[in-house]
Every structure is written in C-alpha cells, then in structure tokens.
Design goal:
By secondary structure, the chain is of the alpha/beta class. The strands form 6 sheets. It has an 11-stranded mixed beta sheet with strand order 6-5-7-9-1-10-17-16-11-12-14, with helices on both faces. The radius of gyration is 31 Å and the shape is elongated. The mean pLDDT is 93.
C-alpha cells in the first residue's frame, strides 16, 4: 500500500452528539446503530393536541404521528453558560444544544472547553429553520416585548449560531455559520478541514443542530413524496416510501493529523480528503437529486484524498429511503466505485437515517460520527429495516452490498476506509473520505497514585461528575490513569465546585467543596523544617521528575566526599525538603512566603534563590567557611537572623529539625509544613492524609486546588502524556421553554 501524505490529513479528535434514543451517549448510539434499533417515536392524538398541534391536522387523512425526537430539548444548563432563565427561554433551542455539544466535544477531545487567549480555534456550524421562533416565541407577546427587538434577533437568528459558541467558549479562530440544507454539517466539516490545511485555524469545530418544537411532531404523507407513510425510514428497501423527520445534533473536533499525533490527542479517525459542489441545473427540479453532481463530488473527494476507490469498504450514504432518491444515489456511486479489479472486496452501504430519522442540517455530521465509530469498532453496521432490497436499485455486477446484520470489517489492502455523503435540497453536495486512526505504540508506564480533578458550576453537578469520574477511573487500566489524570487536569474548565480524587489509594477520601475566596485571599506559606523519618521517599523519587532531579543533583554533588552519618542525614533531609518544595511549586503551588528552621531554613534559602543547592550542601559538608555565595531572595523569606551571613546559615544547618508552626508566618495565611514529607495545615475540613508520601503530596496539591490556591503545572509532569476520552460535563437539566399557545406543558414532561 502506498504511503499517503499525512501533512494533508486531518484528525477527528473529539465528538459530541444529541440524537434520538441515545441522547448524549456515544456508546449507546453505537449500540443502536450496531443492533439496528429504531429511535422514531409514535404519538397519540392526545399528546399531539396537548403540544399544540392543530386538531384538524392530527385528524387529516395521511397524517403520520411520528418523529425521531430528543426528550430534553426544552432543557438547558443556563448557569454553566451564564445566561438568565428568560434569555435561555427566548433562545433557539437548536443554538442551545449546539453550545452544549461544542463544550462536550472539546472535552471529549481532551481540550479545555473555555480556551485561553491567543487560541486559533475555529467554529463552523449551522441550524435548521427556527420553528420555535414561529410557533412558540412570536405568539408570546409578553416575552417578546420584554426582550425587545434586538433581544429576539440575537436569540433567534441563524447568523449567531457560530459566533455564540465562539463568544461563550472564547474561541478566537474563524466563526462561520454554514447553511446548505441537508448537507449543512458535512459542508461545515469540509470548511473546517480547509481552514486547518490553510492554517486559518489550529483546531476546528464542525457540526449542526436541527430541533423542532412539539408543535411540529408528525407529518403529512403524500405518495411519491419525501415523507414515509408509516413513520419508518427503510433506506434501500423495496418498501421504502420516504424518510422520517428527526431532531438531533452533532459536533466534531478536528486538528491537523501531524499536530494531533505530536500533541498526544486520541485520533478516532482520519479525514483523507473532502469536496463540495452543486448540481447546478443538471437535474429534474430544484428539490430533485442530481446523480451527475453526486458522482462528481465523490470522485473529487477521492482525488483530493489520493485514495483508490477500490480500498473503500463502507459508504455512509445520504440514504433517505425514498423511491426516487435511493436508486439515483446508488447509480451515482456506481459511476465512481464500479471496479474491474477481480479481487475487489465488497463495499457496504450505510444509512443512519434508518435509525435516527432525517436530522436535516445535522444528518451529515451524525452519519460521519456513526462512520467514525464503525472504524473504531472495526465493524460494518447494518441498515435498519432492510428486508428486501429495492429492485429499482441495480446492485448486480456492482461492488456494493446492503448489510442486514453487523459484521467484522476486514481491511482492504491493509487499511479500513470509508466515505460519507450528504446532499442538500438545492443541490449542494458534500463527501468526506475517512480512514481508520493510525496505531499508537505501546509505552511502559509506572503504576503510581494519580491526582484526578473534577469541577462543576454547582454542587449537584459536581457530585454527579465526581461519581462518573470515580466509576470511570475504577474501570480504567492502571497504565492509563496518568493519561486520565492529565486529560481531566488540562482538558477541563476550572469551575467553583471541586473534588480531588487519588487513584489507587484507599486511605484518601474525595470531598466536594467550593473554591474559597477567603482562603484564596489569605494565600499559602510553606514552613520548611526537614523534620520526619529520613527513609520513605522512594515513591516520590520514582514518580516525580522534579523531586528526582533534585535528589540526583544532590547525590552527584556529595559523591566522592567522606561524610559522617550526621552530615549524611542532614544532607538527606535537605534534599528531601528542597525536592518536595520544588515539586509543590511545579504543581502550581505559589507560596506567599517561605519560613524555615534548622536544615529547613537552609532548604528555604535554596528554594528562594539565596544560595545554590551546591553551596547549601557545602555548608553541611565542610567545617570551615565554604565561601557560600549569597543572593537576594526571590521569594519572601521569613527567617530570624542574618540571612546575608554564611555563618548564620551554617549554624542553622546544625540545629535539630522541628515541626512547630512557623512563628513569623503572616496571620491568617494557610501554611504547609515541608519536612521529609508534606503536611498541610489548612482548616478543619482538610482531607485525611494517605500513608504513601507521593500520594500525600498529591493530596495536598488537590486540597489547595479545591480552595483555588494553585496555578498551572510545569509541563515536565506531562511529558509523554496522551489525551483520553473521559466523562464529559453532566449538564444540569433545567427547563427553559416558552410553550406554544394553548399547549399543556405537562404533556412534554410526561413524554
């Protein structure tokens, strides 16, 4: 197999969905796809009338009371995004759902959902028609009058779908709303891919949402029309008579493949190429499909990808299940994929609409996410409801097959590849060529305690997040826990309600608490004593590069000197004290002041930059004046005596260690004792300390983080780390919705 140019490839590093039947759960969505589970709901006349659907419409001949719906589209986490309840109720639910999907997709990618300044994260999204504005908002004169004209526009207009996400998540790359009807989200993927390859963005979000209010549940079937007669989408089946409208959303996070591999992202699949075109006038009518344009866009995407069609094993089709559309789509595919190669493996067709209905603007990206999951699971999924292939679809002599059950996906020429199509009414066509993710080399990993951080906007959500993360960590392979901890520390927003979890430790308890503004104002001081048992720091040496570097430097400086036991012990205490203090600082602990006593005072001088580690060890080692070079302190140093006199430091080094509280630490600052281990003195609610000294250090850092007293960690702790998919934010389900006139809101809550 010829090597492809990875510099022109784009990685799918994160995904989020809201789909009928599976909600936000990617695993559940895949199970539904794998098993051919139908997510379309059928409603009673009483439900429909209760939602505000006109009674005469419900009773009309040909009315089909079916739609694939989201059960919680009326709910939104307004607190997380700092929206008022009234503004939330006014806003198009499609844009609210997109905002939550963007947050979740970035978290799934292991990237913080609220980006730091200077980022180049782009947003390319679209929405369906804002029927909520027509059916629910405009008739509510009181809400419209209170919001004012501009307020209604800002909350309702499609133009703000992308810029709203960029504003709320501080994303500073291009933010463009894309609108091409049913192909919107796949066109958005193409545009995002192009932005990455032209360096307009370094990370890009792409997707769409289509959600209609309950007033639009159900449709009228017309023979030969687009909508099904019984509420089932039977793509490629002889009984196919139309599609079923559905509500849903999807967002993917994309990066250049070379960047994703460099940065340790999880690559779920690779975009090898994509293309967009329009049918023009080469079709029967404006709404009719155009086989020439469809074939051309697929061929163009394969050419851009430099991929042989014979190596594609699955094509996720537009697959609307209409008597006209399905045969035309297969005819267009055959123009590109029919092969004279005698050993050509069959290429399966897929149709996600048979599971979740036609999600309109979101259809393409949801089909793409389905295909990424198929690549990940190395499985060809079935087409739901397929019993007898449509005889109008000519498959004899073609490379295509219509799978009715899930089966293992065998690679073609050593690789698994797929195509995804989306064709919009009006003729804008899009096709994306996907490839399975490259293999990741196994790495040796130490099994050591890890600090897992969890935060949320409210206590209830923080507790739910803590429960999810704790359960997830319990099921994570020990060798992956460091990556999990890294992902949750660097790939999440830091919110006020927090918990810190130590993995692999039974004597540490995770406690939920809120960032303490008073504690943050007080700050923290370190009291370096050097007290404690000299032995027992092997866990810190094995697990902590900062501590290990300090000890190795000190041992090298002492090597070759004839030391008595007392000098060696003081040297060990000094190295432990300096190493632990440096380790705390490398984990974002910035002390207001350093205090010290005995050997700890000398260690404080080293940490504050008054003297080098070499000079400090010389003080301990030599009986004569070693000629220590003293410098101004870079940190406030609370030491009684003459810090500018080397004799003072020599005397301090000879005093026995003590663990009494520092007398000169400014009140009411919090303080941490650093001896040969770390002991926090924070408040009455501080967590119990584990016996393992490395876990004890991490528990102290976690407690300070919960109080809001730590900054970013030194990147040295993240060398070789990878971002893993981990539990994303459990959005608070609060109802913010303007019901249609005459509707009974309890009807929706009972659904």
């Amino acid at each position: 197999m010829a090597e492809l140019d990875d510099s022109a490839a784009v990685a799918v590093v994160g995904m989020a969905i809201r789909v009928p039947g599976a909600g936000r759960d990617l695993d559940r969505f895949w199970r539904h796809v794998h098993d051919g589970v139908d997510a379309v709901s059928v409603f009673t006349p009483g439900q429909l009338v209760g939602w505000g659907v006109p009674k005469d419409l419900v009773e009309r001949s040909g009315f089909v009371p079916a739609r694939a719906v989201l059960t919680d589209a009326d709910r939104f986490d307004h607190r997380l995004f700092s929206y008022s309840p009234s503004d939330s109720a006014l806003m198009d639910p499609q844009q609210r759902i997109l905002l939550e999907c963007a947050w979740a997709a970035l978290e799934h990618a292991g990237h913080p959902p609220v980006a730091a300044d200077g980022n180049r994260v782009g947003v390319y999204v679209g929405t369906g028609l804002n029927v909520y504005l027509l059916d629910n908002v405009w008739p509510n004169e009181r809400a419209v009058e209170a919001a004012g004209g501009l307020g209604v526009i800002i909350g309702s207009d499609k133009d703000f779908a992308a810029t709203r996400i960029a504003y709320k998540l501080n994303l500073q790359g291009p933010a463009l709303t894309v609108q091409t009807a049913c192909s919107t989200s796949l066109v958005a993927v193409h545009q995002a891919t192009q932005a990455l390859l032209t360096y307009d963005a370094d990370v890009a979000l792409a997707g769409a949402a289509t959600v209609a209010p309950p007033t639009r549940r159900g449709h009228l079937h017309e023979p030969g029309g687009i909508f099904s007669a019984d509420g089932r989408c039977r793509a490629f089946d002889a009984a196919a008579d139309g599609t079923v409208p559905g509500d849903g959303a999807g967002v993917v996070v994309l990066k250049r493949l070379t960047d994703a591999l460099r940065d340790g992202d999880t690559v779920h699949a690779v975009i090898r190429g994509s293309a967009v075109n329009n049918d023009g006038a080469r079709k029967a009518g404006f709404t009719a499909p155009g086989p020439t344009g469809q074939a051309a866009v697929i061929a163009a995407a394969l050419e851009v990808a430099d991929v042989d069609p014979d190596t594609v094993g699955l094509v996720e089709t537009h697959g609307t299940g209409t008597a006209l559309g399905d045969p035309i789509e297969v005819a267009a595919l055959r123009q590109v994929f029919d092969s004279a190669r005698p050993d050509r493996a069959p290429c399966a067709l897929g149709a996600v609409k048979s599971v979740v209905g036609h999600l309109d603007t979101a259809a393409g990206v949801v089909g793409m996410i389905k295909t990424v999951l198929a690549l990940t699971h190395r499985t060809i999924p079935p087409i739901a409801h397929l019993r007898t292939p449509n005889p109008a679809i000519r498959l004899d002599g073609s490379v295509f097959e219509l799978p009715t059950t899930a089966r293992p996906w065998a690679p073609v020429d050593g690789v698994r590849r797929a195509g995804v199509s989306a064709f919009g009414i009006g003729g804008t066509n899009a096709h994306v060529v996907l490839e399975e993710a490259p293999p990741i080399a196994a790495r040796p990993r130490r099994h050591v305690p890890q600090l897992v951080l969890v935060s949320a906007k409210t206590a209830a959500v923080a507790q739910e997040s803590l429960d999810r993360v704790t359960a997830f960590a319990a099921g994570t392979a020990p060798g992956d826990l460091a990556d999990l901890a890294y992902t949750l520390r660097t790939g999440r927003a830091e919110l006020p309600w927090r918990a810190a979890v130590l993995t692999g430790v039974t004597d540490g308890v995770a406690r939920l608490r809120k960032v303490d503004a008073t504690a943050r104002a007080r700050g923290v001081a370190l009291h370096l004593t050097g007290a404690g048992a000299v032995t027992g720091n092997r866990p810190n040496y094995d697990a902590d590069p900062v501590y290990r570097r300090t000890v190795d430097e000190g041992v090298a400086l002492l090597r070759g000197h004839d030391l008595d036991d007392s000098v060696r012990e003081r040297g060990d205490r000094l190295l432990a004290c300096v190493g632990l203090t440096r380790s705390l600082r490398s984990r974002g602990v910035t002390p207001r002041a350093l205090a010290g006593d005995g050997v700890g005072a000398v260690a404080a001088a080293v940490v504050a930059g008054v003297m080098s580690l070499a000079d400090a060890l010389a003080l301990l080692r030599d009986t004569d004046d070693p000629g220590v070079r003293l410098h101004p302190a870079a940190l406030p140093l609370l030491i009684d005596g003459r810090p500018d006199d080397s004799a003072f430091w020599r005397a301090a080094a000879l005093r026995p260690p003590t663990s009494t509280p520092p007398p000169d630490v400014p009140d009411p600052v919090l303080w941490i004792e650093v001896g040969t281990s770390v002991t926090p003195h924070l408040d009455a609610d501080q967590p119990p300390l584990p016996a393992n000294r490395h876990a004890r250090l991490l528990a102290t850092v976690g407690a300070l983080w919960q109080l809001g007293l730590t900054d970013a960690w030194d990147p040295v702790h993240d060398t070789g780390r990878r971002r893993l998919p981990a539990p994303t934010y459990p959005f608070a389900a609060t109802r913010h919705y303007l019901d249609a006139p005459g509707a009974d809101p309890t009807t929706e809550r009972r659904h």
